[in-house]
Design goal:
Blueprint (H helix, E strand, L loop, with lengths): L3 E8 L1 H4 L6 H13 L4 E8 L3 H14 L4 E5 L10 H8 L2 E2 L1 H12 L12 E4 L2 E6 L3 H11 L3 H7 L21
Parallel strand pairs: 1-2, 1-3, 3-6
Antiparallel strand pairs: 4-5, 5-6
Amino acid sequence: MSQIKIGVITASDRASKGIYEDISGVAIQDTMKDYLKSEFEIVYRCIPDEQDILENTMKELCDDAGCCLVVTTGGTGPALRDVTPEATENVCEKMMPGFGELMRQVSLQYVPTAILSRQTAGIRGKSLILNLPGKPKSIRECLDAVFPAVPYCIDLLEGPFMETNEKVIKAFRPKSK
């Protein structure tokens, strides 16, 4: 059985400089610990909002570190320095727009500004890259909505089998015939 590696990238100029603590990256890691029954390893990076650095970090985690899932936080808004979706589109062979659509739909139940969010997802090789917003509360709301589809997506990419803690979240896998 191949080992599960999950990449976590925080795109934040200030957190990458140590001006403030990266609570968003920690929120993703804590959520993965809640969700997954399978053992896994986190490969964590906190980097500035620079498109070339984002692209290179995504490539590194997918291609070199062997992460089957790369989850980003930050850089998904309309501000000039928000370039995470562009970086994701540049490194992926296939885009998975349903992830972003569902995350925005869920977030709109809480804040009208969710319409400004540009989260997306895509496939690079055998890795799923998933862009999340930057606030820990929003991260959990979005992951609660989309994560049930993530383990099956990883299955389809011939990645490791992810078993979820069904008391917290249930992965959806179609019944085989």
